[in-house]
Amino acid sequence: MGMIRPIKKEEKDMTIAGHFSDLTDLRIDRTKRRKLFDIITIAIAICSTLSDGAETG
DSSP readout, 24-47? Predict the structure, then answer.
């Protein structure tokens, strides 16, 4: 396994966190049970899985 290295400034937008870092969470504080970044990451993973032809049901 390789070493984990810090992300360079020019590579920032190559990550999910870097791409969505400017996104503003407009939810009310009392409804924030989960971090917005976690919700976005899970949604992307689900869309990616379903687009690969995975069967559900």
Answer: ---S-GGG-SS-HHHHHHHHHHHH
Q: Which two tokens stand for residue 12?
A: 């920032």
pLDDT surpassing 80 at residue 40: yes
Coil, strand or helix at 43? helix
- In terms of phi and psi (left: phi > 0; alpha: psi -120 to 50; beta: otherwise), the region of 46 is alpha
Calpha distance 55→46 (Å, rounded): 12
pTM over 0.85: no
Question: Tokens 């969470």 sit at which residue?
Answer: 25
Question: Which two structure tokens, joined as six digits, stand for 33?
Answer: 């049970």
